[in-house]
Structure to design on (326 residues):
């Protein structure tokens, strides 16, 4: 073969390889994307995940499918996501529990909240609300409730969704700020705690605003104050704890989308742009508000700063109150 024919043959082979390599030819995304939810179906996270998946499907012109991998306080789903191929086809929607609470409670956690993931962005936040049984009188506001507790703390207890949950942290933050101490009764989840609060087995508890809003309508429980920095849209008449005598108090849970560590830069940017557009969409915002969220997009840098800041704030609370996982 003369050198001209040889050069032509090599060029043909190179051209075929370039056009036949999927990574080189395919534009992201070119197949369905999985959105891992580290919680069981049902509840606020599931609702948010479905809204986000539908919105991303429209923005990316590719199907985004919700995939549940629940268990072990979200660790199973987070570990699966962290170990998935960093190609943009496995993402996760998770809450503050995954990224700021678990790293404090589990010293040998199988994932790192920062190093194991590529952040795409924050979707929204939701506050917790301090609740009391309707028959607990005259405690209709926070200062009156605290005054009653101080008379005889041994008469009072509060329920949480379990040791080390955001509800547990929020309560201990408040009792520490108010310099009161009451008995903690950890439940195995939100539903049994709310059921006992409504039934009067416990006088006080906290819950996420979306779940509490519907329970309050029964007339069996009453809202005292919300934990966020501003009043909740679903409960505009309920003051914040900060307004009720504890300036600066703030405790929220939030929802963020992440992928495995080392996502290619172009993939991260594509996903970030789509997620921002989804959260900014008025229709999506309305759905998120209906689910009890305050829609709020935060870019990867802001998200990372939030994680660092919250871990630093929560760790002393855990140490001072001996908060451990179940």
């Amino acid at each position: 073969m003369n050198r001209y024919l040889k050069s032509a043959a090599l060029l043909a082979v190179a051209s075929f390889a370039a056009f036949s390599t999927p990574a080189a030819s395919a534009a992201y995304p070119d197949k369905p994307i999985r959105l891992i939810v580290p919680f069981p179906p049902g509840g606020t996270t599931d609702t948010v995940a479905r809204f986000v998946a539908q919105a991303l499907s429209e923005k990316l012109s590719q199907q985004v499918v919700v995939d549940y991998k629940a268990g072990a306080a979200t660790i199973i789903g987070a570990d699966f996501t962290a170990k998935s191929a960093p190609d943009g086809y496995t993402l996760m929607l998770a809450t503050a529990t995954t990224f700021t609470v678990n790293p404090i409670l589990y010293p040998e956690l199988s994932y790192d909240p920062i190093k194991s993931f590529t952040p795409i962005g924050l979707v929204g936040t939701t506050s917790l609300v301090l609740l009391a049984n309707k028959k607990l009188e005259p405690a209709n506001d926070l200062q009156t409730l605290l005054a009653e507790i101080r008379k005889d703390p041994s008469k009072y207890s509060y329920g949480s969704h379990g040791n080390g949950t955001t509800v547990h942290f929020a309560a201990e933050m408040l009792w520490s700020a108010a310099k009161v101490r009451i008995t903690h009764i950890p439940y195995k989840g939100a539903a049994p705690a709310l059921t006992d609060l409504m039934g009067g087995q416990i006088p006080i508890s906290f819950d996420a605003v979306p779940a509490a809003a519907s329970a309050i309508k029964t007339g069996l429980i009453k809202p005292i104050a919300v934990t966020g920095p501003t009043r909740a849209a679903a409960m505009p008449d309920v003051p914040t704890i900060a307004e009720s005598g504890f300036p600066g108090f703030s405790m929220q849970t939030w929802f963020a989308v992440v992928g495995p560590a080392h996502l290619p830069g172009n993939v991260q940017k594509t996903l970030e742009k789509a997620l921002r557009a989804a959260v900014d969409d008025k229709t999506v915002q309305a759905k998120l508000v209906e689910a009890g969220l305050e829609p709020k997009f935060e870019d990867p840098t802001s998200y990372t700063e939030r994680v660092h800041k919250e871990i630093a704030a929560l760790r002393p609370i855990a140490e001072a109150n001996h908060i451990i996982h179940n």
